[in-house]
Design a protein that fits this description.
Blueprint: E1 2-5, E2 8-11, H1 21-25, E3 31-35, E4 41-45, H2 55-59, E5 80-86, H3 89-94, H4 100-110, E6 116-122, E7 129-135, E8 163-170, H5 172-181, E9 186-194, H6 202-211, E10 223-224, E11 233-236, E12 239-242, H7 243-252, E13 274-277, E14 291-295, H8 298-306, E15 310-313, H9 318-325, H10 327-335, H11 337-340, H12 347-369, H13 374-381
Parallel strand pairs: 6-8, 8-9, 9-13
Antiparallel strand pairs: 1-2, 3-4, 5-14, 5-15, 6-7, 10-11, 11-12, 13-14
């Protein structure tokens, strides 16, 4: 998080979303990022170059992120929802869940709906993906699958002049930052949100490598976090682990999170035309995969029906979506934001927050230190969740 205080740009790592928008916003190249052992970027300012224009502060999503409310009032605004998937089975197999994003982006370019698209593309070196502005033709096979490590995704969202129409894929914080960054420079911005409950730092990768028995789990040459059908596998240096084994503890217990994720209440996107998500509870495992797709605007709905090579079955109701994304736990997490901001909260919210901090600290230290027998990983995955102490709508405080 960047702020302007006493005439200087101040960086707060504990609030940073790692989006990289600040790096793209600086016309004077006064900002640079250094990466720590967890893959987290620290933004450094060169005083001799900085003009204190405040552009980097204005695009930083961390200021506005905690105010993005998560309420049931969003569901009447939904146009339609269903399952979507790419017509090419090879692309479906390589994608995280169905390849719908790849079809949408390629279709936006091939059908002339957009002059350019911005998304993560695969690369050979760590962090194995980087943001890229694509015009003309998109190679769907080079679009990155879900990446569970810090990537300053918007760092390369720089161009001269204006663009008439652009499609961008990103998480809530990335779409919020991109909207600010592209204001006045892109006439029509199509936002495709990737549902993101929590992004990970490299602790998650080390955990997966340790479970796979790698000698140096913190220094892999190559990681593929998804792919190989639904729900896929994590592959670290040619050794694979089923996704559910790799993810049950890190995601179920909310370990190794990017700091800024603590302050995000709404994983469904910012002013999104479409939200794409894994189809938990909606699609059987060990298939080629499908994507849960939610259209929030008429433009989003049209794209889901008209994009070439994209199949779309609009058959999901809000109740189906809420079960799939664990809506009640999302509401509990949203209530914890005030606690993490250091503000006064009701007793049960404070208790849940303190217990979550303790559980996170203990589990991260133990799992970083030891490789455990498989049965102990299962026991840990089923430990009580402190979030369940936090009441939501209809429950007593």
């Amino acid at each position: 998080m960047l702020s302007l205080a006493s005439g200087s740009i101040v960086f707060r790592k504990e609030r940073c979303c790692q989006c990289g928008a600040c790096l793209a916003s600086c016309q004077d190249n006064a900002l640079a990022a250094t990466v720590d052992q967890d893959g987290l970027a620290t933004i450094r300012v060169a005083p001799e170059k900085c003009t204190r224009c405040g552009a980097c502060v204005r695009v930083c999503p961390a200021h506005q992120l905690p105010s993005l409310r998560l309420e049931d009032t969003i569901w009447p605004t939904m146009k339609e929802a269903g399952l979507a998937w790419h017509a090419d089975t090879r692309i479906r197999q390589a994608a995280s869940s169905g390849g719908a994003a790849r079809a949408l982006l390629a279709g936006c370019l091939s059908e002339g709906q957009c002059e350019a698209v911005y998304t993560l593309m695969r690369q050979k070196e760590s962090p194995w993906a980087a943001g890229a502005l694509i015009r003309g033709h998109l190679d769907a096979g080079q679009v990155a699958s879900s990446m569970y490590l810090p990537i300053t995704a918007l760092e390369h969202l720089r161009f001269t002049g204006t663009i008439k129409s652009m499609a961008i894929v990103g998480t809530t914080c990335q779409l919020l930052a991109a909207t600010k960054l592209l204001k006045g420079r892109v006439e029509t911005l199509l936002r495709i949100a990737i549902l993101c409950k929590q992004q990970k730092h490299l602790g998650f990768t080390r955990f997966a490598g340790k479970r796979l028995g790698l000698a140096e789990p913190g220094k892999p040459d190559r990681v593929d976090y998804r792919g190989h059908g639904w729900p896929g596998r994590v592959t670290v240096d040619n050794r694979s682990l089923e996704w559910e084994q790799a993810a049950a503890i890190p995601f179920g217990k909310r370990l190794w999170r990017v700091p800024g994720c603590l302050f995000c209440p709404n994983p469904l996107g910012y002013k999104a035309d479409i939200t794409l998500a894994d189809p938990w509870g909606l699609e059987p495992c060990d298939t080629a995969g499908k994507t849960m797709a939610i259209a929030w605007t008429a433009t989003g709905s049209t794209l889901l029906h008209a994009t070439p090579h994209l199949h779309f079955e609009p058959r999901l109701a809000p109740a189906d979506i809420k079960r799939s994304i664990d809506w009640r736990n999302l509401q509990r997490k949203a209530r914890l934001i005030r606690f993490y901001q250091g503000r006064n909260v009701p007793g049960r919210v404070a208790l849940g927050g303190h217990l979550e901090r303790i559980q996170t600290t203990v589990l991260e230290r133990c799992l970083n230190k030891w490789r455990l027998p498989g049965v102990l990983y299962k026991v840990i995955a089923h430990l009580p969740d402190p979030l369940h102490l936090i009441p939501v709508s209809g429950e007593r405080e």
